[in-house]
Amino acid sequence: MLTTARALCDRMIDADDCHEAATEFETTINKIINSFNAKQICQTLSHCSAVSTG
Fold first, then answer.
1. I need a labelling partner for 40 at 20 to 30 A (CA). Which of 7, 11, 27, 54 fits?
2. What SUPFAM superfamilies would the database entry show (predicted)?
């Protein structure tokens, strides 16, 4: 998705602003992804047994 956004930015007149927005979006997405705790999510969704989460 980000690759597509950057490709579209390249075709825009004000490409610099578009690239800045895409970079900010990427940073936000990376922060969200990095904040995930797999063990906590697994326990919340009840997909892990006590043995596998211990």
1. 27
2. Saposin
